[in-house]
């Protein structure tokens, strides 16, 4: 932890991205992206699913912060399309939207204990990758 002179709180230190690339994900199984980690600030949370035959529903990124769970869900994801987690100040649940790198929405959730997982639900499991990336810092 680094304390910056003049600031009463620690400055977050950027960490290497946490990444999941799960081949052939099993329906409804939660896969770890960022294991339970202390003093975390989530900056970007994105996911993608690619399928060959049967469309999965939904794509979910599950974030547990200090014992409370937020599920970022998209009922009908488009194959091979990146989605980012979105927190609306007017909503109590999370949302997934198409990743837009031209926009710089400051996605910041933080807590003393943070975990990120991803899952998909299939009608039929098939060869496909489930991907998720988390950009984060530690304070």
| Structure class | mainly beta
Helix and strand sequence: EEEEEEEEEEE
Coarse shape: elongated
Q: Mean pLDDT score, rounded?
A: 85
What features would you describe in this structure?
- The chain has no helices and 11 strands.
- The chain has a single domain, classed as Sandwich (Jelly Rolls).
- By secondary structure, it is mainly beta.
Describe the structure concisely:
With 139 residues, the chain is an all-beta fold. Helix content is 0%, strand content 55%.
Spell out the key features of this protein.
Jelly Rolls, two-stranded antiparallel sheet, 11 strands, 139 residues, mainly beta, single chain, 55% strand, six-stranded mixed barrel
Q: Can you lay out the helices and strands and say which pair or pack?
A:
Layout: E1 2-3, E2 10-11, E3 13-14, E4 18-23, E5 31-49, E6 59-65, E7 68-74, E8 83-86, E9 94-98, E10 109-120, E11 129-138
